[in-house]
């Protein structure tokens, strides 16, 4: 197993670079405060996200898994054998591992911003599949997909499950998909999971669950920023909001100040009024047709779409 953390991402070790300080400060100081959702994922954030995936209200993970279970053979036929499986946002690597028997990749490249979590998962996976050449990369691909030469370039199949593409705005998604397309040779492609527009009550519950795991996941961002930027957020003074915004076709997550307070961090300070919010994440929902349109705009060719009976989620294979 070759585990790499490129020198260009030192902020992943919880020491902020000047660029990170500038980026977070820009968001926190904006009239309507915001933070990039990438800061949801430190080691604890990744574990909380894993717990979200096991919640009864959070349908995407199990619905996507059911699509793979039901249509796996069909999907494998459409995709064909992949030499290199590039897993974007691999997390615990479980979804890609379930595809190994179907796709039989010679190389598995796992990319995730949360590097420590990734390297633990990949270490365990390598023991289960000793014949596959595995490479772990601690990359922040929100800001660009720059793959090192150790990633083999023949028959690259990019795998982007879980509807993580929804955490980009549609414009950012097209730009990102263009980069994936630029990294794909003629016999490669993309296998992607996309969350579909559905009843607002289902979406509200999925992002504001009864146990409060999503609330903990969202609030953990403040804890992470405290460690990363020496900020002094008092986590107990903030409240989670997660709801569907039908006008923008997205679920929004916000953190709301429970009381008026001054927050300081390396790079700035801000007084938040009671009720003021920090916008922490968007999760865009698509129709089948609107997402296929996005893939076409990004330069991908024919797409196959598989969905569940309720049409809640789609797995899409796009050819280069
Ligand atoms: C990772 N991503 C696809 C999740 C989503 O559904 O947008 C992150 C998440 N946020 C709250 N719950 C889950």
UniProtKB/TrEMBL annotation:
Keyword Disulfide bond among UniProt keywords: no
GO molecular function, one term: methyltransferase activity
Pfam family, one: Methyltransf_33
Domain of life per record: Bacteria
An annotated GO BP: methylation
Keywords: Methyltransferase, Transferase
Protein name (Swiss-Prot/TrEMBL): Dimethylhistidine N-methyltransferase
Organism, as annotated: Janthinobacterium psychrotolerans
